[in-house]
Predict the structure of Pseudouridine synthase.
Amino acid sequence: RAGKLSSDGEEEAAAQGAEEAARAARRGREALRAAAKEAEYGRQLREAHFAETSYYFEGGLRKVRPYYYDYSTYCKGRWVGKKLVDVFHSEFRGRPIEYYLAAAKAGRLLLNKHPLKDLSVVLKNNDFLENTIHRHEPPVTAQTIEFIEDNDEVVVVDKPSSVPVHPCGGFRHNTIIFILGKEHNLKELHTVHRLDRLTSGVLIFAKSAEVSKRIDEQVRQRQLEKEYVCRVVGEFPENEVICEEPILSMSYKMGLCRVDPKGKPCKTIFQRLSYNGKTSVVKCFPYTGRTHQIRVHLQFLGHPIINDPIYNNEIWGPEKGKGGSVNKTDDELLQSFAEEYVSKESLGILDIVEEDLKAVLVDKKQETPDNGIKPLQVATAIDHSDNIEESEDKAKTLSLNSAPQANVHKTETGEMCLTEFHNEMDPLCEECKMARSVTTDPHFGRKNTMRYFSQVCPFQQKNESHEDLV
C-alpha cells in the first residue's frame, strides 16, 4: 500500500512537473514572438499601412476612424484535420459563429487567396487564412508628442501617457510608431526600448540598424541609465530601498507578471522624494528591464502606484500582493483579470484583444455585472453541432444584404486579394451598434468617463512640483 501511495505521488508530481514545463515553454515562445514583433514594428510599415485610416480629435482625445483590416495566419498544427467551423468555435471566441458565416457570405474570408463560402472545409497543413474585420481602436490622449531630439541618427520624444509605443492588442494607429509616421513622416524607425502604455517619458528611436545596435550595446554596458518617478500608496521608507525579487511573466499576451522564485533576476533601486501624509513620490532606478518591473516591485514592497489598474487591485487578495502574498493560482488570477476588464469593456488596460482571451475565458457563462454594463461576448456558448444550418439562419439577422461586400480581384501574380472598403459603419460589426459616450476614457474603457484621466496622466500640467502630482 505504501508503495502504491508513493507511486501515485510520484505520478502526480511528474504530471505537475510536466505541466509547469509546458507553461514555461509556452511563456518562452510567447516572449520570443513578442520581442520579435517589437523589433520589427516601424521597419516593416509601408505607406499603405499608414494610409489605412485617419485621426480625428474630440473631447481632448485622439480617435481613429473605424477601418477595415486583414488578419491573416497560416494553419497551425493543432488545426490540421479539423473543420474550420470547429476552429472558430474553439480558437476565436471573440465573435459568435454567426458572424463568421455572415462574413464568409460577404466575401471577407479567404482560404489560400480564394473566397471561402463553406466553413465546414477541413484544414490542411500550410493553409493560409485571411479575415477582413471592421476595426475600432480605443482612444488615447490628444496631447501633442513633444520632440526632444531629431537628428540623422535618432529621434527622441516625450511619450504621453495612454499611448502605446507600437501596435499591440486593440491599438494600431493610436500608437507612437504610427503617429510619428503619419504626422511627422518619420518611418522605418527602430524601437530601441519601450515604455508601458500608461507610462509617460523619454522614448528613443534609432533611424538605422547600426545606430540601434550601438545604443543596445551602450545599454548593456550601463552607459545609459533609466530613471522613473511615480506616486505610490502610503509612506515609502526614507532610506534607499533595493528590491531584487525575481519576476515571472504569467502571460505575455495579457502582460501580467508577479514575483516568483522561478522568475528572471531583476533589480530596482528606490529613493523617496516626498511624502504628503497619504502618498509618496518615489524615484526608481531599474537595473534590468523586465516587463512591469517597477510596478511589480512596488507591489511586492506594499507601495503600489496609486492608480495602477493591475498591481493595485484587490484581485490579488487582501494584501494586494504585498510580500508576494497571493491567494490565487496563476490561472485564477488571469481568469479574474480577464473577467473584470471584459465586464468593464476595458480590454485596453491589459493591451489585448478579445480573441487573445480564448485560453482564459473558456466555456464560462458571463452574466451582466452589477454596474449594468453588458459584457463583451468573448466566450459565447455555441452549439458545437456538425449541422450549421441553424447558425446560417441566425446569420441573416446580421443584415448581410446591407453589409459592404468585398471586392475580390486578381493581382499581377494571379492571386486573389481583397480591395479596401470605404465604409465607417458596418452592419456586421458589433462595435458599430454600440452607443458610445463622447467623454470616453482611453485608460479605463470605452464606457467610463474621464474622471480618472488626471490620475493616469499625472504629467499633463506644466511646472508642477512633486507635491502636485496625483
Remarks:
- Residues 31-36, 362-422, 435-441, 443-470 have pLDDT under 50 and may be disordered.
- Residues 253 and 356 are 7 Å apart (CA to CA).
- DSSP finds eleven helices and 19 strands in the chain.
- The first strand starts at residue 55 and ends at 58.
